[in-house]
Write a structure and sequence with these properties.
alpha/beta, Stationary-phase Survival Protein Sure Homolog, Chain: A, nine-stranded mixed β-sheet, two-stranded antiparallel ribbon, 7 helices, 25% strand, binds manganese (II) ion
Length: 261
């Protein structure tokens, strides 16, 4: 009879800031402090912030081993998770995917742009429970302090966060003294697009200028971090607006004939 060892807990660590990010390193170190955990890092070889959930489908992807349990991919965060789960770790899948710690917040409406969060969603799509970590940055911010909290949340998640289809989106304020489970807030896009001329006189644009503000709203992630609490928001990929289905049901009769040949 073959001997089957107890399945090891394996945590896949990735991010969108790239392999050289301090936040990635601190998050991996936090996982390594947990007994009986094997940590596998698969991260983009360069910054991929705001890559969203893109997969690379039109060119070859390379995965390069840097050292034991550490790999870089010349693609997006979602590529990293996809390759890690379906190829590299195929025979011994990760127990948990953790993404981050992102340099900068991923709050409210910005979650759809986020490569950090999309890496977690890719884990969710592949049936692996996943957590995304991001931090506001400013004077006195510390990846180390975020990582200490991340370690505790990951320990909890290994026992309790079992539903792979719900990801946890965690945002740290620069200084924090509490935890709040919050909903996504609404960002106000100031529409600040910078327009400049390059050295050859051609116009170029820069998206995303301006200081972000948000609509006040109770129990939002924005409010939590503004009040010095770590915001934890459960997210899922079902974008259906369920409340609208009954209201739109009349379209089936109203326009049904228009769909007939
Ligand atoms: Mn980033």
């Amino acid at each position: 009879m073959r001997y089957h060892a107890r399945r090891m807990v394996r945590i896949l660590v990735t991010n969108d800031d790239g392999i050289y990010s301090e936040g990635l390193r601190k998050l991996a170190d936090a996982c390594l402090r947990i007994d009986g955990v094997e940590v596998v890092i698969v991260a983009p070889d360069r910054e991929q912030s705001a890559a969203s959930h893109a997969l690379t489908l039109n060119r070859p992807l390379r995965m390069l081993k840097l050292r034991e349990n550490e790999y870089i991919v010349d693609g997006t965060p979602a590529d990293c998770v996809n390759l890690a789960v379906l190829k590299l770790m195929r025979d011994d899948r990760p127990t948990l995917v953790v993404s981050g710690i992102n340099f900068g917040p991923n709050l409210g409406d910005d979650v759809t742009y986020s490569g950090t969060i999309s890496a977690a969603f890719e884990g969710a799509l592949l049936d692996v429970p996943s957590i995304a970590f991001s931090t506001l940055v400013g004077e006195g911010f510390s990846f180390e302090r975020c990582a200490e909290f991340a370690e505790k949340l990951i320990r909890w998640a290994l026992d309790h966060h079992r539903d792979p289809h719900i990801i946890l989106n965690v945002n740290f304020p620069v200084e924090f003294s509490g935890v709040r489970v919050a909903r996504l807030g609404n960002r106000i896009y100031a529409g600040d697009i910078l327009e400049r001329a390059d050295p050859r006189g051609r116009t170029y644009y820069w998206i995303g200028g301006g200081k972000p503000t948000w609509r006040p709203g109770e129990d939002t992630d924005f409010e939590a971090v503004e009040e010095g609490c770590i915001a934890i928001t459960p997210l899922h990929l079902d974008l259906t607006h369920h409340e609208s289905i009954p209201r739109l049901k009349s379209l089936e009769d109203l326009l049904g004939h228009a769909a007939k040949g």
